[in-house]
Amino acid sequence: MEPETPVAPDVQEVQEIQEAQEGTAALQLSSPSEQGYQVKLEIFEGPLDLLLYLIRKKKIDIHDIPIAVITRDYLEYLERKDQINLDREAEFLFIAALLIYIKSQMLLPREQEVSEDEDPRRILVDQLLEYQKVKIACSMLREKEEDQLLRWKRTFLPPVAKPDELDLLEVSLFDLAETFFLIMKRKERENFRVIKGKDVSVEEKIKEIVDYLEKNGQMDFLEYFSSQETIEEALVSFFCLLELVKNHVVIALQEQLFQTIRVWLRKDRPHHLPHGHSHE
Amino acid sequence: MNEQLKAILEVLIFMSQDPLTMDKIKEVLGEVPEEEINAALEALKQDYAAADRGIQIIQSAGGYLFTTKPEHDQWVRRFLQVEKKTKLSSAALETLSIIAYHQPITQAEIAAIRGVDSTYSVKTLLQKKLIKIVGRKKAPGNPLVYRTTEKFLQYFGLNSLDELPKEEEIRKILEEEKQTVS
Q1: If exposure means fewest CB atoms within 10 Å of the residue's CB, which of A266, B9, B13, B37 is most exposed?
Q2: In chain A, which residue's Cα lies nearest the Cα of B64?
Q3: A237/chain B closest Cα distance in angstroms
Q4: Among the CATH numbers 3.10.20.740, 3.30.70.260, 3.40.50.620, 1.10.10.580, which is that of A163-265?
């Protein structure tokens, strides 16, 4: 009895391979618009995403993947990437290896028909089906997200209570930076005038801030920031604040995101001031 | 309809920093039966739902709160001088929906479903407080276990996790896609 090779290329398969080549050409040139599905080479969220895309493009049922065709497309995609970052994209190679393994399994002549349970494609198919569900859940959540982002809530605004009634939270450098970028954005609109030629050193600025704090006890950083004459000076003063926080010289508190940052000297601050490590 | 109750509820929602929960309402109002509160809330929601109002009452994360309507987004942004709010990256959203549906879940389990390492996305989501660590799994290496937060519900305007798109809905979409394929 002649064993059957499951993937013997028949007419249909040859046709599919040709389509495959056309398909990948399209993949390279432009995004397939019929689904409104934007595809550039690098945007796949992992190897399963790519695989699912290739399968959809071919309009193939996931349960019945023509491994030869898909493997070819998949490898073509990998080849087209001139560099593969092993740390980041090992998963792509793993799936490529898996595809080749499955393909080799299917090419091997067998005594009997493989039962459905033993189909080497099974694991991959299960994984793809699960992943496909995630993709759909994602697009549904995305719709909700888009809708919600347009609805503003009162919680977005800072509370109206007086500062001394509030529980102050120590802010992380991350929060500081976020506030900083927000202020910068506002500043941009205010038609900042730049006076060139004045150099501000981090050391001087640090000293200025510390002197101010020693004299006044605390500082409204937003006010201080806005009073800076040039954008460079304002920038430097922000870096100084970061430096001072990092070196435990001052404590910075913000009651709510986008509100001002209040700065105090720490009682247990080190005696020497940090030096600005200027990279310029 | 108890007009006074309606007005009081409006006040409470207005003053509340977080979505106003039924528990909180009962705590404040004391004796009033829940059906009466619900009826008043419903009437209040109806009042606000009128086309000429800019504010709405929605239910989110198990409570009531005021929001603006989507069509007024640009006016709010002009007023506050802020940019359009940024959406989650697709990697982060993918990771988040896996966590939402499979919680409690470990990072390795997330990676297994996505087929790609998800450390960075998990970190981003933690930072945005959309997920939280709830403990460690009793498994080799005692990996951390993640869950979605209350803020996750608020972010997507969901009342509870039950309001996530259901398996059946997802399956229905899959079926429809399949039909367009064949």
Answers
A1: A266
A2: A153
A3: 23
A4: 1.10.10.580
